[in-house]
């Protein structure tokens, strides 16, 4: 099926958090064991006002098929790439690249000089292909379970 990308809208909240859960549980199996995936996200987060605001307060783009969200990516005002998730059935179909192109274009329009993130193993590979630099690996603890992630950044050239 054909997917399209558009800015986040309030009705996307539930779908985004479902994609987040599906991507963590089904898309990262080659990089994180079940205990790690459960510590990261054991069930789909509720669409609470705080969770919806996390997406609406950021620059967030959503990939969708009809009304079904199949991926999303969000960037905070300071250029921090906060979330980047694609439903497993839509991975390796260009969804992440299309979302990333929209976020990157927004960062440039905002005249940001740099973008930063803490990337999972899976996101690390994708971002490295986009020219991001790995700064260092770090381990965070979630519910007593260690999760490895990677601090990364991307220097942005000034635009005219």
Description of the molecule:
This protein is α+β, with helices and mostly antiparallel strands. The protein has a single domain, classed as Aminopeptidase (3-Layer(aba) Sandwich). 34% of the residues lie in helices and 32% in strands. It is built from 5 helices and 7 strands. The chain has a 4-stranded antiparallel beta sheet with strand order 1-2-3-4. Strands 5-7-6 form a 3-stranded antiparallel beta sheet. A hairpin with a 2-residue loop joins β6 and β7. α1 runs antiparallel to α2. The longest helix is centred in the first third of the chain and has 15 residues. The chain is globular and about 45 Å long. The relative contact order is 0.17.
Summed up:
This protein is of the alpha+beta class. The chain has helices at 13-27, 34-41, 49-56, 95-109, 121-129, and strands spanning 4-7, 59-65, 68-75, 81-86, 114-119, 133-142, 145-155.
Tell me the number of structural domains: 1
- Name the quaternary structure: single chain
Could you tell me the mean pLDDT?
95
State the total count of DSSP E strands: 7
Instruction: Assign the CATH class.
Output: Alpha Beta
Number of helices: 5
Give, in spatial order, the strands making up the sheet with the most strands: 1-2-3-4
- Give a quick account of the main beta sheet: strands, pairing sense, barrel closure: 4 strands, antiparallel
Low-confidence segments: none
- Sheet/helix structural class: alpha+beta
The name CATH uses for the topology is Aminopeptidase
């Amino acid at each position: 099926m054909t997917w399209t990308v558009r800015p986040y809208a309030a009705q996307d909240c539930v779908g985004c958090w479902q994609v987040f859960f599906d991507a963590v549980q089904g898309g990262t199996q080659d990089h994180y064991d079940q205990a790690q995936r459960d510590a990261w996200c054991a069930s789909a987060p509720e669409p609470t006002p705080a969770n919806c605001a996390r997406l609406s307060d950021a620059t967030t783009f959503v990939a969708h098929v009809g009304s079904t969200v199949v991926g999303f990516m969000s960037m905070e005002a300071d250029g921090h790439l906060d979330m980047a998730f694609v439903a497993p059935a839509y991975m390796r179909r260009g969804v992440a690249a299309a979302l990333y192109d929209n976020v990157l274009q927004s960062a440039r329009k905002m005249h940001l000089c740099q973008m930063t993130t803490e990337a999972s193993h899976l996101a690390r590979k994708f971002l490295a292909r986009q020219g991001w630099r790995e700064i260092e690996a770090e381990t965070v603890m979630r519910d007593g379970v260690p999760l490895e992630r990677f601090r990364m950044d991307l220097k942005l050239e000034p635009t005219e």
